[in-house]
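Duplicate of #3305? Posting structure anyway:
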């Protein structure tokens, strides 16, 4: 029997800009790496403002500019019960981290919460770990958001591969055993 897939979820405010970008980009990377059966990717928002709606048209357009299809996305709200099924909860900014920490019922669940950009070595070196919200900006804000999220997704994929290898080797979970790595 194979272990359950590693579940990674992206979280932003309304699940229409930043988190759908992460979801779509990482899903493609997972698929391209041949890990579809081993990694589950999802996304949600901390609020219910856009539940059931498509991603912001500017998000879909930016993804399309880079060959990604975000047209099937539907926004949903993060459910605290998801902590039991998720291995890594990727927050877009510190406000989301605080909200998610309040929703987490156990220390183990709180340890699952990380910032998306903690997985981008350049962002860590620069000390810019929050993903800027493009909602109030123009096309350039969505382009910057895409670049930030895509760079982080490369590191997230590497991290998830390590998690899968540790599970196969019987080592402790890499995702849960990381203290606040990369946090200032």
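Output from current build:
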């Amino acid at each position: 029997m194979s272990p359950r897939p590693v579940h990674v979820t992206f979280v932003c405010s309304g699940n229409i800009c930043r988190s759908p970008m992460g979801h779509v980009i990482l899903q493609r990377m997972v698929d391209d790496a041949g890990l579809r059966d081993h990694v589950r990717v999802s996304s949600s928002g901390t609020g219910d403002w856009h539940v059931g709606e498509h991603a912001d048209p500017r998000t879909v357009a930016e993804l399309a500019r880079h060959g990604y299809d975000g047209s099937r996305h539907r926004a949903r709200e993060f459910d605290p019960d998801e902590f039991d099924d998720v291995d890594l909860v990727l927050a877009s900014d510190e406000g989301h981290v605080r909200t998610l920490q309040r929703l987490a019922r156990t220390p183990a669940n709180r340890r699952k919460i990380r910032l998306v950009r903690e997985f981008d070595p350049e962002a860590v070196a620069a000390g810019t770990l929050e993903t800027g919200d493009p909602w109030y900006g123009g096309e350039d804000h969505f382009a910057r958001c895409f670049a930030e999220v895509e760079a982080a997704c490369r590191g997230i994929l590497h991290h998830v591969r390590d998690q899968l290898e540790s599970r196969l080797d019987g080592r402790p979970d890499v995702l849960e055993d990381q203290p606040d790595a990369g946090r200032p």
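Confirmed duplicate; merging threads. DSSP finds six helices and four strands in the chain. Strands lie at 6-12, 39-45, 88-91, 113-115.
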